Amino acid sequence: MLSPDRLQFHSGNLMIDRPSWQGLPPLAGLCTFEDAQRSALSVEHCVAWMKRHHYLLVRLHEIFTARITAEPVYELKTAFSLHAFLCAEHASAFRQRIGELREPPLGLEVVPDASLKLLCDEVLCSPGQAELVLGLYEVIVPAVIESLKRYSTTTNPLADAPSVRVTRFCLLEMDDIVAFGRRAVECLIDPTTRERLATWRKLLDECLLRAGGSGKLVQSKVWSPLGDDERQSQVPIAALAQATTDLSPPSPQFSVTPFQYDPVPKRDARFQDSFNAGVNPEAFLYDEQFATRDKVLMLLYKRLREIDVPEMMASILHQTAGKPWKYYRDMTRQLWDEARHAMLGEVGFVHLGLDWTRIPISFTWSRNLNTQLEPWERHAVLFFIEQGLMPRMGKRYEWEVGQHSGIPLAGLFQDFDWADEVLHAQIGREWYVKEFKDLNEAMSYGDRCWSHVLSHWSSDRENGLTQHRNWWPDIYRAACERWGVSPDPAALAFNATYESIRADLKGISASG
Predict the structure, then answer these.
(1) Is residue 363 within a helix (H) or strand (E), and if so which, with residue range?
(2) Would you call 162 helix, strand, or coil by DSSP?
(3) pTM above 0.85, yes or no
(4) CATH number of the domain to which 80 belongs
(5) Which residues pair with 375 in a beta bridge?
(6) What is the pLDDT of residues 40-64, one digit of tens each?
(7) Which residues pair with residue 331 across a beta bridge?
């Protein structure tokens, strides 16, 4: 029989032998015996601290979502979509963990600290892109990261192993968020802008200090809000999660005026002629006379144009209150998927060596829905479209086009796009269809809501917003030149518009 090896560890001033078989790591590799003897945080203290993490993740989700539609820069619009989803995911994980720690009712909707609330309100209400990027990526997200790190090194890593695991996964993706954010700050905030925002930046720092400091985000009468090591060594660690209301928040600046959601999509200068509805890609896609390779161009356009889905879904999320948290998590997953689909279209054009900025990427769908329908009606239209993509002449057909096009990347992208849309239809069945007698009633309502949306096709042209230029021949010629082939005369002559036919090839309302 093999003899166990010996490990040594400290117990007070004594060195004690501890058997470990063949030198295997003890305690399942989670930590050392020394770390496993921490007695700093009780369950109550852990819950109080994690509730602050949860609060900030939920508020970050709110801020990212609320600013997607009106943010003109495409890279920020897509990043906000991803970051909102990541925050929703980790907020969900903390909600579950807190619920495991003797916490019913959870009280997760209670604001844990007035200064943290002001911090988030200030960033939500920030008047411009620079303020928003600075507040998100240089203040709130780094504060969350530092607090997560402190939590991991303070709590007992064995007794509280499930919380440490949730914290580690959160840290991994918060680090990804802040890495993007650092680059965004470098690109968008020059010294003059930073100097202009210095007073407001100090206000955000003061909010953190009054809430307990960026390392803890938990205040106490005796806990040093500055996180000073010398003072920390004199303070019992148990004071960490004993929140008080002794420190009132500083005076607000931007949030003196409550946040007003802007439902009108904004686009940066690369997006030209955004009211253009002069090309109906669905009419081309389902016409059997055209080659699958040529149809890929329309598929890529449809994917890139899907940036208007996050612009619309963000309005649903921001303007819908009182739903279970899982609703917001699931809907944000779909929002992120749609932003990812837009980037698939972007990559597809890059892959073919084509300049997508020569194509008018319309925002009229999101703009019309956001300004003409209520949030529930927008959700109805969204589900009607998603469910309509499930039959044979929907996402499967688009995948088949990609597969037979001779462009492998197109087939791959459509494969994943199809898988995502199946998930989205399931999300719709969970959060939309259950409010109706059956699927048919839910579909009929969505169809009616979409039919009530005025297209403004003619009035947009009459008001000089667009001439509905047929951009298709130019991009098709450019593609054929890249492919080294002659354009198909029938494809080159394609000129179907959205004047009277919507994306599912049904008639649409004209402007009054």
Answers:
(1) none
(2) helix
(3) yes
(4) 1.20.1260
(5) none
(6) 899 999 999 999 999 999 999 999 9
(7) none
